[in-house]
Write a structure and sequence with these properties.
Helices cover 41% and strands 23% of the residues. The protein is of the alpha/beta class and 382 residues long. The strands form four sheets. A nine-stranded mixed sheet has the order 9-10-8-7-6-5-4-1-11, with helices on both faces. It has a three-stranded antiparallel sheet with strand order 12-13-14. Strands 2-3 form a two-stranded parallel ribbon. Strand 7, helix 7 and strand 8 form a beta-alpha-beta unit. It is globular and about 55 Å long. The mean pLDDT is 96. The structure holds S-adenosylmethionine (SAM) and iron/sulfur cluster (SF4).
Length: 382
């Protein structure tokens, strides 16, 4: 299999408050978190994973959450040490940490940098105080801008996230907010359309008719504004929700989308490990305390460890790769699946204007095809 890098994902599952739209594996602990115990468990899981996949060179490490900016910098350093004890760290390794842009967390930026973090991804979400309050965020727009300014100063690279297609948001408002955001961006920005996730407070409000989000046509208009402004600013979409100057893409997320190998460490983390010619899909127990107990008893917190059939790998390869503007290499699909893509289906999708082939013989989804991505993938994978 073509090497597309090896990434290590570390999941920190705690937040100060639970945002009403979020269905990530994140938990609020009033009594505090025994960080030293968690760090020992992370180190144990890293060791157990390295026993299965020794000799790797780590190209990227990503601390996601939850809110990893709540970790003590010494804990981040200890986890990075554990990674370095078991694998080789590439000289140009990308080490990202997700941070909430509150004042308290920004105060730790220098120490995170000292621990080895060289990229932060800030959850700004909105640059409007009323919208931030409606999203249940605990920071103001001013605090977020201060955190961005500090991130620019401290880290080699930074990015931030915004959520759009929020209740009542008009294209004109979003245009102004996005232009303001871009004036604070460096070379990467993530722009997510608000999704109403199952079993969240937003879903309950939505079902009760108390939360009105833009309908599909209005969301499409907001998405068009997004693409327009980002392209003009030299930050084209390289993935459905991610924009960067060419060369400044998040390399860790590219490992997922290019279907590379990655280890998932921590509660609820997923991995894809290549062992003995097979690709294993791993998933860890989601509940933090249950995960701790599993790791302390078994050395890892896995609740899933399944060798994927070639057909399942091929489906995943399509699902991930077609999110990217660069698309996929049909030859690599054939190697994974053991059979080529169906040329007549491709011809039909090209006829509908949903996919196209590039000069480099890659296959990619067109801008008109992106809103129908799931259907396109399902058709090609059938
Ligand atoms: C793991 S979360 C965030 C990291 C950090 N805890 C924070 O909130 O700033 C990653 C990103 O997913 C996005 N996100 C989470 N839930 C979402 C939803 N329901 N709809 C759209 N975007 C969402 C947010 O932009 C968020 O920053
Ligand atoms: S959006 Fe971020 S801070 Fe809010 S609950 Fe989810 S992970 Fe935690």
């Amino acid at each position: 299999m073509k090497r597309v890098g090896f990434g290590v994902y570390i999941h920190w599952p705690f937040c100060l408050a639970k945002c009403p739209y979020c269905d990530f594996n994140s938990h609020v602990r009033r009594g505090g978190v025994d960080e030293a115990r968690f760090v020992r468990a992370y180190a144990a899981e890293i060791a157990a994973t390295a026993t299965r996949i020794p000799g790797r060179t780590v190209s990227t490490i990503f601390f996601g959450g939850g809110t990893p900016s709540l970790m003590q910098p010494a804990s981040v350093a200890a986890v990075l040490d554990a990674v370095a004890r078991h694998w080789t760290i590439a000289p140009n390794v990308e080490i990202t940490l997700e941070a909430n842009p509150t004042r308290v967390e920004a105060e730790r930026f220098r120490a995170f940098h000292g621990a080895g973090v060289n990229r932060v991804s800030l959850g700004v979400q909105a640059l409007d105080d009323a919208a931030l309050a409606a999203l249940g965020r605990t920071h103001s727009a001013e605090e977020a801008l201060a955190a961005i300014a500090l991130a620019r100063h401290v880290f080699e690279r930074y990015s931030f996230d915004l959520i759009y297609a929020r209740p009542g948001q008009t294209p004109a408002q979003w245009r102004a907010e996005l232009m303001q955001a871009i004036s604070h961006a460096a070379d990467h920005i993530s722009l997510y359309q608000l999704t109403i996730e199952p079993e969240t407070p937003f879903e309950a409000l939505h079902r009760a008719g108390k939360l009105h989000v833009p309908d599909a046509a209005a969301a499409r208009d907001l998405c068009d504004v997004t693409q327009d402004i980002c392209e003009q600013a030299g930050l084209p979409a390289y993935e459905v929700s991610n924009h960067a100057r060419p060369g400044a893409e998040c390399r860790h997320n590219l490992v997922y989308w290019r279907y590379g190998e990655y280890a998932g460490i921590g509660p609820g983390a997923h991995g894809r490990l290549d062992v003995g010619g097979k690709r294993y899909a791993t998933a860890a127990e989601r509940r933090p305390d249950a995960w701790l107990s599993l790791v302390e008893a078994n050395g890892d917190g896995l609740v899933e460890n399944e060798a994927l059939l070639r057909s399942a790998q091929a489906d995943e390869f399509l699902l991930m790769g077609l999110r990217l503007a660069e698309g996929i290499d049909p030859q690599r699909y054939a190697e994974i699946a053991g059979r080529p893509l169906d040329l007549s289906r491709i011809a039909d999708l090209i006829g509908y204007g949903l996919v196209e082939t590039t000069a480099a013989r890659r296959l990619r989804v067109t801008p008109a095809g992106f809103p129908l991505l799931d259907a396109v993938v399902a058709d090609l994978a059938a």
